[in-house]
Amino acid sequence: MTNQISPDNTERTVGRDAQRNNILAARVLAETVKTTLGPRGMDKMLVDNAGNIIVTNDGVTILSEMAIEHPAAKMLVEIAKTQEEEVGDGTTTAVMLAGKLLENAEKLLDQKIHPTIITRGYRLAAEKALQILPTLSAEVSSDEELSKIAQTAMTGKGAEHAKEKLSELIVQAVKIVATNGKVDLDDIKIEKRKGKSISDTKLIEGIVIDKERVSQEMPTKVINAKVALLDCAFEIKTPERETRISISSPEQLQSFMNQEEEILQAMVKRVVDSGAKVVVCQKGIDDVAQFYLAQKGIYAIRRVSRTDLQKLAKATGGKIISNLKELSEKELGFAAVVEEIKEGEEGMTYITGCKNPKAISIIIRGGTEHVIDEVERAIKDGLGDLASIVKDPKVVAGGGAVEIELSRKIKEFSQTLRGREQLAVEQFALALEFIPTTLAENAGLDPLDVLTELKVSHEGGNRNHGLNLFSGKVEDTMARGIIEPIKVKNQAISSSSEVAIMILRIDDVIAAGKPKEKRLNLSQMADYE
Ligand code: ADP
Ligand code: MG
User: Fold this and answer.
1) Which of 137, 140, 301, 382 has the highest CB neighbour number within 10 Å of its CB?
2) Is the CB of 36 under 6 A from ligand 1?
């Protein structure tokens, strides 16, 4: 189209075309993640330009790794990320609902119903759903219930056979770090080490850092350790020095070396004087310094990441020092034991009995990196779910039970409305059925049969009946321990409806020109249909 006010290569799509285009992109995305939903969902293998492989079942991981350029599709990826940040689980559900809401909206658009009416209907329905949700929930408190929540979050994520052990570990971890109804997941440090099996994954009450002590001469274990946390280098090499110094005689070299050694010795002395028995350094530690530190019986690790250093500061109560001159006893942290323990080939540093007992680590073990990474995502889903349970200890029945009941109630609600919004509210109700039908489909069951059975059950007053994929039957999933935090559903419903509404309100897409090869290939997306 010609356009006088924008540069030539600006692309503009308006009206129905813009809507169709956006809806299509959202639907494609929803269809992409759909096959991963639930315990029988399939995994996806993602390969990037460099050939790195990720095998995952996790909605947000898939979407963040895909190179998505379509603006509407990007908005959907954003809700997956929000869902992940807010509750740490339910990303696939959120994206699927958004895709379905848009797909259903298209039917109404085809019937010449104005987008404003659709968005108003969707808003009404979403509000209603959020009102109804608490009435379908139950309070949980026992460890067993918490463990069931973690297990439901982890099913289908490659940790199947170690599910019980891992869920206990997750419950334990969350209980340790919970303070006043809040869980800061940053207090739980996750370390990964290849080798052994998933069931060897363990919880350590302390911080574990993937570093060995710098010198074999150092002690392997320090008791009642005062810990110096340094973000300055234990070296004297600086670029300016290297360029400026020119040495012309052996004597000069010797004196230079002596000088260097003296400086390093002085640095070590500062550590010794402060009373520190352990040095954790973000930068390097010179060989000569290593030697003198070892002589003084000091345990040192180097090239520790900034985040680890910060975690240690919080755990040990120490202060991160940028200049050794500032080092004194009051800046030091404390840990009852600092020890190097071999995990597989290499050693790791265990810092336990910290001043702050809320610092804990989980060490994930597994046969291959891909397995370990997927277990990490499963554990994070479990941790996220339990963190939201600590905030709001309510659960709803899984396996599509809560979606079917909401759908039924919202259909009833639509009957009380007049005008064409009613149609939009109805479509909202239908969109919710997408979750149970997909759970069935992914398990190789007939989605329509399952849907019918669920509806009949719910009409009969069994509001907690869902599809139990352990037994393959429609039954009371709440009683079977297939439970999810209410917050996961709450967030999925509100964010998916928000993004659907936002996308429906767009009727003009003005895209600045980009190099051709970089643009999203919409014709390819259309082929998909
Ligand atoms: P999400 O990214 O949305 O969390 P998941 O792949 O984790 O997607 O699947 C979550 C869905 O799987 C929820 O609807 C949950 O109720 C369902 N689910 C989990 N375990 C079972 C089970 N044993 N039987 C049936 N449904 C289950
Ligand atoms: Mg999940």
Assistant:
1) 382
2) yes
CATH architecture observed for domain 206-356: 3-Layer(bba) Sandwich (3.50)
Q: Is the CB of 366 under 6 A from ligand 1?
A: no
Q: How far apart are CA 418 and CA 423, in angstroms?
A: 9
Which residue, 509, 497, 469, is CA-closest to 128?
497
Nearest protein Cα to ligand 1, atom 10: 38
What CATH superfamily is the domain 141-205+357-392?
TCP-1-like chaperonin intermediate domain (3.30.260.10)
Q: State if residue 38 touches ligand 1 by the CB under 6 angstroms criterion.
A: yes
Fold of 2-138+395-528: GROEL; domain 1 (1.10.560)
Q: What is the pLDDT of residues 166-205, one digit of tens each?
A: 999 999 999 999 988 888 888 999 999 988 899 999 999 9
Catalytically active residues are 58, 91-92, 381
pTM of this prediction?
0.85
Burial 120-155 (b: 16+ CB within 10 A, else e): bbbbbbbebbeebbeebbeebeeeebbbbbbbbbbb
- Is 141-205+357-392's fold the same as 206-356's? no
If one residue of 29, 154, 484 were mutated to test the ligand 1 pocket, choosing by the most ligand atoms within 8 A of its CB, it would be: 484
